[in-house]
């Protein structure tokens, strides 16, 4: 759980709360390691996988509709901007992961 909290840059208590709500809604399941009960794996349930697939399909259709309305030059600009955003997000995630743990991640 602390790994999830660290990954999303949040407090451990908030990560637990989010996971609990996702479990309650049937979107995520907890799988306990049979060799070490302290190890918990979180997995998307079948329901969540279907929801993600439907969302992805709708999102893809929207992107295709918007892209069809753009010129080649506009699409090149969008791709360049997306590359810049992707790099910035990656750098931010790397920096967040590299920071030493503090009391933020404790319950």
What report would you give on this structure?
- By secondary structure, this protein is mostly helical.
- It has four helices and two strands.
- The protein has a two-stranded antiparallel sheet.
- Helix 1 packs across helix 2.
- It is flat.
- The termini are close together.
Give the tags.
107 residues, mainly alpha, two-stranded antiparallel ribbon, disordered C terminus
Shape descriptor? flat
- Name the quaternary structure: single chain
User: Any idea what the radius of gyration is?
Assistant: 19 Å
Placed side by side, the strands forming the largest sheet appear as: 1-2
How many H/I helices? 4
Which spans have pLDDT < 50 for at least 5 consecutive residues? Answer: 100-107
SSE blueprint and pairings:
Blueprint: H1 2-8, H2 12-24, E1 28-32, E2 40-44, H3 46-68, H4 72-98
Antiparallel strand pairs: 1-2
Helix pairs in contact: 1-2
Short description:
The protein is mainly alpha-helical and 107 residues long. The chain has helices at residues 2-8, 12-24, 46-68, 72-98, and strands at 28-32, 40-44.
């Amino acid at each position: 759980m602390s790994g999830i909290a660290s990954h999303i840059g949040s407090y451990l208590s908030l990560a637990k709360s989010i996971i609990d709500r996702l479990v309650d809604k049937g979107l995520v399941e907890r799988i306990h390691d049979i060799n070490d009960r302290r190890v918990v794996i979180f997995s998307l349930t079948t329901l969540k996988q279907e929801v993600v697939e439907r969302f992805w399909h709708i999102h893809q259709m929207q992107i295709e509709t918007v892209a069809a309305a753009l010129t080649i030059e506009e699409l090149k600009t969008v791709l360049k901007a997306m590359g810049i955003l992707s790099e910035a997000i990656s750098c931010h995630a790397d920096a967040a992961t590299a920071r030493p743990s503090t009391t933020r991640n404790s319950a």
